Amino acid sequence: MKAGSRLEKLLIQGEFVATAELGPPKSADIQLIKHKAGILRGFADAVNITDNQTAIVRVSSIAAGKIALDEGLEPIIQMTCRDRNRLAMQSDILGAYVLGLRNLLCLSGDHQSFGNHPQAKNVYDLDSIQLVQMAKRMRDEKVFQCGEEIRNTKKSDLLEPRMFLGVAANPFADPFEFRVVRLAKKIKAGADFVQTQCIFDLPKFKRWMEMVVDQGLHEKVFILAGIMPIKSPKVLQYMKNNVAGMSIPDELIRRMEGAKDAKAEGVKICVELIQAVREIPGIRGVHIMAVEWEEIVPTVVREAGLWPRPEVAAE
Amino acid sequence: MIVAEQKDIAEIIPMTEGYQNILVIGCDTCVTVCLAGGAKEVAILACSLRLAARARGKKVQVDEISIERQCEKEFVDSLQSTVRGHDLLISMGCGIGVQTIAEQFPNLAVVPALNTKLLGLPERQGVWVERCQACGQCILDKTGGICPISRCSKSLLNGPCGGSQNGKCEINKEIDCGWHLIYERLKSLGRLGCLEEIMPAKDWSRSRNGGPRKVIREDMCL
Questions:
Q1: Whole-number Å distance between alpha carbons of A19 and A6
Q2: Where are the domains of chain B?
Q3: Sorting pLDDT into bands at 50, 70 and 90, what band is A32?
Q4: B136-184 per-position pLDDT tens digit
Q5: Tens digits of per-residue pLDDT, A46-86?
């Protein structure tokens, strides 16, 4: 056990895990965080708390994560390299840990040009791979990035933040052949689990997973397949046209267009995808990204046969 | 080379407010090549300023000159006699030129007519592209001669992010993904193995983050 988080325990236990996502609000609305947490409670083993996603200012992932924790969720704190340098990152990792947060997802972050402060200066002091490396060294070697030991004074005990470390992987971005190499680098840097970009193009995902399995990477890291419930064909079309690094088959858009009840069809597609990825060797769970549609998660989880969620076995 | 572009005339005119004797100074080096601040652009700007002054019913003298290099004190010193009688110097050099002139003429107002944009090269007629950010620690040996600091929108060091598609950057389909270029180049050189190694955290203290930088060659100092 590296960090002893609930997510880590369930994965080691061999459960097929289900994680979800909670997007913090664009205002100081604590009730909304609690409301979303309430929806997800009991339907996800852990919940990603996004970090100013799409480069739009929101309640910080750590603050929202602490509220989610108090509401009974197991948060995965997302941390991007866009907004913080190595001092702020390490300080926030310590801060998250002392608040009881135990999972950290290390990301490059969407470029600020997408968000509501395109004139901002970005940071990228470290990239996501260097961030994982740093967080792993903090945990396993008990040192800061600079090499200094993590203790308050020379006489104090070493007290390191022990995070279960996650990364993202996008099998649909280019160059395709490099995507497995990049995953291997992230594992080498210290990734314990991976959540993939949302899957719509199943054949391409399978090709990527074959390469992953060929290299034995699935034995070194827990891979959770990204699944996104879609409300309408417009959303799919929009992502196809505007979101880089997505692969969305036209037949899926046509299927959504032909549906009488688009939302119900979206759920159906989602459930089918979950069942399909579950059959792929090396997949240890799903990450359900219901962006600003948290309330659909319980339905998806139930219909995919993933409810009730497992408990951590008594030691 | 240093690439610059001229500021909008509407931004330059207010800088001249209250001055009667203006000298517009061009630079014959980088900014001449990038068509931003050479003798020709000096003539056009001076003419525009005269017309603008006349339109506002103001009597303003605008003179012109261009020197070899605004970034070297020796060349800027050659302006000693020319600047006499002027109360405002408009530099059409890069930011270095403006500051060299300001240092050499501490009692005269100096303003910039250009925005200094990048260190790069002309890609084709009329288009200049960035190639270096002067980070102070060159890693081009590891990246197939293509710089990720200047060519990746996030200056990543360990390969393309998840937003790279069809060789283009997530922020704009007009921008090549720097890491895709690196990948293709290393592939053609048979050196893709380079990309498997983790590039460690960069020492940004050698870049601008370490404060204003200085290069000292003791052996060359007098």
A1: 12
A2: 2-118, 133-199
A3: very high
A4: 999 999 999 999 999 999 999 999 999 999 999 999 999 999 999 999 9
A5: 999 999 999 999 999 999 999 999 999 999 999 999 999 99
Name the phi and psi angles at A42, rounded to 5.
90, -5
Could you please state the CATH topology (level 3) that the domain comprising B2-118 is classified under. Rossmann fold (3.40.50)
Question: Other CB atoms closer than 10 Å to residue B85's CB: what's the count?
Answer: 10
> In the predicted model, is pLDDT for residue A315 greater than 80?
no
Instruction: Name residue A131's amino acid.
Output: L
Neighbours of A285 (CB within 10 A): 25
Structural domains in chain A, sorted by start: 6-303 (3.20.20.220)
Q: Is B132 helix (H, G, I), strand (E, B) or coil?
A: strand
CA distance to partner chain B, nearest, from residue A106 (Å): 12
Written as one string, the DSSP assignment of A60-87 is -HHHHHHHHHHTT--EEEEEESSS--HH
Rg for chain A (alpha carbons), in Å?
A: 19
User: How far apart are alpha carbons B11 and B16 in whole angstroms?
Assistant: 10
Of A134, A178, A197, the CB nearest to B160: A178
Torsion of CA A261, A22, A209, A167, to 10 degrees: 160
Min CA distance, A11 vs chain B (Å)?
25
Chain A within 8 Å of B102 (Cβ-Cβ)? no
CB proximity A240 to B under 8 Å: no
- B158 interaction partners in chain A (CB closer than 8 Å): 127-130, 182, 185
Q: Report d(CA B178, CA B112) in Å as an integer.
A: 32
ipTM of the complex: 0.95
Q: Are A168 and A198 in contact (CB under 8 A)?
A: no
DSSP state of A120: S
A176 at the B interface (CB within 8 A)? no
pTM of the model: 0.96
Nearest to B171 among A113, A185, A188 (CB): A113
